[in-house]
């Protein structure tokens, strides 16, 4: 059986991570970016203090990643993190997203993070199921806050208290 590891990302993983995200930016609606992000941003993310970038490594191939980031910059938001997770097409629906999120949430709990927030562009039944399964609760939906691929997109906000 193929072996999958969830581990911290290394600099050599960044092109694969960037490609997974870039495909979703160009072809999907899970992110409101329209184009891939420059490598410098991924390098910054990798070295960001207080946050995490994890990858799912399937026998040497990065098939997904999960990351945390500050929710908003003002200091009173300091105990809150925003998380996200992407799994490459062809590997979805096999438990990888859940494994990545479980590992990320455990690290954030160890860090003493109080609240984790996630924004899910709709429709996205897999992401809604993932967040529900990981103990998040939905706290509201912003209607038509994004416009992509010729349509307005709603954004559901989910949160989970860790502390
Ligand atoms: C959303 C995503 C990260 C989920 O990861 P995954 O590896 O496909 O999901 P998993 O196999 O770990 O399953 C997680 C849960 O979602 C459910 N699920 C998976 N695919 C589903 C689908 N297509 N429809 C409905 N539920 C689905 C699983 O049954 C599981 O629920 P459970 O815990 O109640 O059994 C992945 O599908 C993805 O990368 N999608 C594109 C990018 C994206 O939407 N990212 C999220 C941004 S908020």
TrEMBL record:
PROSITE patterns: GNAT. Signal peptide: none annotated. GO terms for molecular function: acyltransferase activity, transferring groups other than amino-acyl groups. It comes from the Bacteria. Residues 4-163 form the N-acetyltransferase domain. Pfam families: Acetyltransf_1. Keywords: Acyltransferase, Transferase. This is N-acetyltransferase family protein.
